[in-house]
Amino acid sequence: MGKNYYITTPIYYPSAKPHMGHAYSSILADFFARFKRIQGFNVFFLTGTDEHGQKIQRAAKEKNKDPQSFCDEISENFRKLSKTLNLSNNDFIRTTESRHLKSASHLWDKLENNKEIYLSKYSGWYSVSDEAFYAENEIQELDGKKIATNSGSEVEWVEEESYFFRLSKWEKPLLDFYKKNPKFILPESRKNEVISFVKSGLKDLSVSRKSFSWGIKVPSNNDHVIYVWLDALTNYISALNYPNQNDILYKNFWPADLHLIGKDILRFHAVYWPAFLLASNIAPPKRVYGHGWILSGDEKMSKSKGNILDPIEVIDKYGIDPLRYYLIKEVSFGNDGNISKEKLENCINSDLANNYGNLCQRVISFIEKNSSFKVPKIDKFSEDDLNVLNKFQQNYKNLISYIDNQNVNSYVSFIVDNLFAANKYFNDQEPWKKKSDLKRLNTINYVSLELIRKLSILLYPIIPSSALKSLNIFGIKENEIDFNSIVNNESLIPNSKLLKIGILFKKVENND
Ligand code: MSP
Q1: Could you read off the pLDDT of 164-178 as tens digits, one per residue?
Q2: What CATH code is carried by the domain that includes residue 393?
Q3: Host domain of residue 394
Q4: 24 CB under 6 A from ligand 1?
Q5: Which of 241, 389, 410, 463 has the fewest Cβ atoms within 10 Å of its own Cβ atom?
Q6: Residue 395: inside a domain, yes or no?
């Protein structure tokens, strides 16, 4: 069996149209998925929509629609967004699909059979916006309203019969699990938050609702619907055809390698989800990474705050690769970051057009004029040549480890540094002054082409379509991109034809 890798995005609430925060989770997940594919892994990359619960039921009602047709419409926007973002997802799951209903109902039965669930009564605070129950000490009063301190969302008092999951019983096993798997929760700072939350004592969790109907019915008691988070988290195994644990997808891909999520939903993924799984005798995922937020000013972007930046508008104006590059490079992964027109334009001009675009354009047009547009022959590599080429070999293992530890910043810094180094190499070597020494001229050109090839491979997970355009110079197709080949300094075959490249990135003029 080959090496498998399973990565997921959160499944999005189709309560309103997608915004930049959603695009962010998806683009980052796509970045990891594409890297692992070119590294040689058999990747399964899942995204989708989370369609049940009171939040969706209310949003549909506001629009005078029945929840199913409301979800059909908005889920379609998310599916379209996946295409616009150039996501390479293998599947798109909707929690209203029958495969998911079957899977979530089965998980419930399993929990009930394992005596992990009991019937009682819930009285406490609930935030429909977060679809979360809050304890008294997590609530505060603001302008006469009760809000959840963490999220700022309004809470309401709920009193109803409810099934409970014996979360309290899993406090110790969870702490042991975190200890045994020190990288289960990343980044480290967030891990500490989760551990102190668990250590402070876990209460049993209400896992069904009775006062509305938009959800998956509790199999043994149709008056209740399954709590939307228990329903939603199950998507990660529904897509692998759980409960059929002999299914090839399930066998290959569970436990997931990485659930990439925003920090606001860490508790659900790092506490409730592994507890549900342990209680059902299923292995928990290998890692949950809680990324930061894309802020608008200094606030989280959200529908209720009305400060949403529409990814489609940004893409229409600048293109998808610049947006991907910006979000991956300029937002320090793990922390909050923001996006502004000025910063995005600056990034396009300096990094993409001046650094990468310029390298490709200059080298290619020089070769077109001087080497009849074929891969030139190497004479012998000089020390300068080897210095610049061997950086890739020397950092091969580091680059893999950056990705496997979600150290996006170091991965990107390596590329940026080496783009500078490649431009500098071409400048310093001055091939245009070597016309009387064709052997040297050809070698410089060869090295420059190899640098473009290596850097384009590394850039592919970030800016797939632009990197592909560059790799197309060498006739390299998408399914032929091989990260492992960055260690090779002589992969291009002398005399083979080069193909033309269009303009990769247009500079943005400073006007509106
Ligand atoms: N439906 C749940 C997730 C269920 S996963 C089993 C949900 N949906 S959501 O649509 O509200 O948010 C989905 C993701 O988008 C979360 O990871 C959230 O952190 C992310 N973002 C929403 N707004 C964001 C920003 N402003 N910035 C970055 N990401 C944020 O939660």
Answers
A1: 999 999 999 999 999
A2: 1.10.730.10
A3: 341-487
A4: yes
A5: 410
A6: yes
